Amino acid sequence: MLVGAFACAHTPQLLARPGTEDRDLVLRVHAAFGRVKRRLEALRADAIAIVAGDHVEAFFLDGVPALAVYVGTECAGSFGHYRYRFPIHELLARTIVEQGVERGFDLFYTQAAPLDYAFYVPLHFTMPEPAVPIVPLHVNVYLPPQPTPQRCYDWGRVLGEIVRGRPERVVLMASGGMSHFPGTDRYASPEFEYDRRWLETLKAGRGRELAAITGEELDKMGNIELRTWATLLGAVGDAKADVYCYEPSWHHGNAVVEWAV
Amino acid sequence: MNDQPHYRFPPASAYRLNRCLFALKSDDAFRTRFLKDAPAAMREMGLETDDTAALLRGDRDALVARGAHPYLVFMADLRLRMEREPVTFEYF
Q1: Smallest Cβ distance to A19: which of B70, B74, B88?
Q2: Whole-angstrom distance, CA of residue A3 vs CA of residue A162
Q3: What is the pTM of this model?
Q4: What is the pLDDT of residue B2?
């Protein structure tokens, strides 16, 4: 069953803060992560299915999956001085692959790929104790051509159906967003107004509108990672978003959001 | 203001360049070899002369024009700078 749904920023400067970052802003986002952690504890989740876009860490140009599922017994990765490892809910992961394929999604799966920091940052701050097994779900956001928002939404709808048919208490988490332009000359000028308009739309329970926008628009607005949100929105339908925080830094719109399911 | 997307399809001609940037980002041993002897490390990756020159200059625009992925350019550069001029972080 689906018991909760969240979206969390994964800005690395929230994890390792250099002097360029506003400490108070970072701590406000941490406080929002803390709320998510307490919610995860209250929800007594058996598994966290986390949707994130690999940052050319697990999947380089040797093989670029549009959608992938980690189905090993555990997964691990590193980022800077952080080394991390999580148990995978293997049965749920395998069920998602098998039923996803049955329902028309030709999913890539891996038992060994490294886990990118996009998965790690939200889990670092929100993982309950003792740790809950995860199912990492990759959506290609950085290597064009990426799946369309509509395709992500449709995959999310099927993912939601699969999860709702399971006995485990599953929380869905989308990692990423909002506006940022790493590696480009737009790095210091994200599209914060665009983010705010989307948050209003999501608060009104109109998440399905995200499926209709184009990949071109996402690229233009620094929001290629909203594909992970589109995936989650396919699963939660027209639920209304509760925005825990929206904190625009000099390079990144940091949002933390919950949807009632 | 141009209408090019920020993240473009990486041309196959830039595969080696992107592989080198990927290694600088994610492969500690390669990054160490690069810092010790950049020309040798780039030869190891089979880079072309123009790639080598642009990478040594740290010329983002030239690298991207040659097909490098902007995110890889950004992270490779960040990792190299962190090695050369250690940054102080607050770790959470």
Answers
A1: B88
A2: 13
A3: 0.97
A4: 60
